[in-house]
Design brief:
heterodimer; A: 134 residues; Beta-Lactamase; five-stranded antiparallel β-sheet; globular; B: alpha+beta; 27% strand
Chain lengths: 134, 112
């Protein structure tokens, strides 16, 4: 079953979706409008880019420190949480055990995010992104 | 803040506190872990930055969409390859991914 469908089966998941690292595509299911899903995708891409930049700095201080490549991030709100693993995201309510269930499914189904994440994030630059980055 | 208590969280390898400017103030490291005070110092700075940005996003999201539930912000977590850092306020905990209990970790940093 597709990851988004599996996430939507979990009670407490409000919406879930997938965004392109390039920032120009998204798909979702759940209680969001198209415009809000588009905004959520931009927010997720920006946060993913930010935490990856930070992990590159950590790695330069302490090689193989265990943070790189970043797998995802969580923003915990008062009653709602956004979590992202790879290029998937989920909006969930803060009911007990929902976050752990969602993270378990996301980590298991998305798998380990590989080192080419930044190349994908920057691919809109055009040309040979790998050469431009490294 | 009882950092030793936070080290009892599943998979905890480090617990730390930091100032509002991101300076590492106190920390506890699990013996034998690969985490170093230098990485924790950088981590503390990134935590302050990430909490500030997440707070801005929460406020902006609520204002633009009309949806509630994000404010006040209750924390931020970065999930690395082997470990995750969970922070709120001036306190953070680093937990091994394979043992991580994110809800318990968020509850612990919120309580401290």
């Amino acid at each position: 079953m597709h990851i988004v469908k599996q996430l939507m089966v979990i009670p407490g998941v409000i919406a879930a979706g997938e965004y392109a690292y390039r920032g120009d595509r998204f798909s979702y299911k759940g209680a969001l409008t198209d415009e809000h899903a588009r905004m959520a995708s931009i927010l997720c891409r920006a946060n993913t880019l930010m935490v990856n930049m930070q992990s590159e700095i950590f790695d330069s201080f302490s090689e193989n420190c265990g943070c790189r490549p970043v797998q995802g991030w969580i923003v915990r709100g008062n009653k709602m949480t956004i979590c992202s693993v790879g290029n998937y995201f989920a909006f969930i309510s803060n009911h007990q055990e929902v976050l752990n269930d969602v993270m378990t499914i996301m980590r298991a189904k998305v798998g380990d995010v590989q080192d080419d994440l930044l190349v994908n994030l920057y691919s809109k630059l055009g040309g040979d992104t790998r050469e431009a980055l490294y | 803040m009882d950092l030793q208590k936070m080290m009892e969280l599943p998979g905890a390898v480090a617990a730390f506190t930091f100032s509002d400017r991101g300076e590492l103030q106190s920390h506890v490291l699990r013996e034998g872990s690969e985490m170093t005070p230098q990485v924790l110092d950088l981590l503390a700075r990134s935590c302050v930055a990430n909490l500030a940005i997440a707070g801005m996003e929460a406020r902006g999201w609520e204002a633009l969409t009309g949806y509630g539930g994000f404010e006040p912000l209750k924390g931020f977590s970065v999930i690395g390859l082997e470990w995750s850092v969970v922070v709120d306020g001036n306190c953070g905990v680093v937990v091994k991914n394979r043992d991580a209990d994110y809800e318990a970790s968020f509850n612990a940093v919120q309580a401290s």
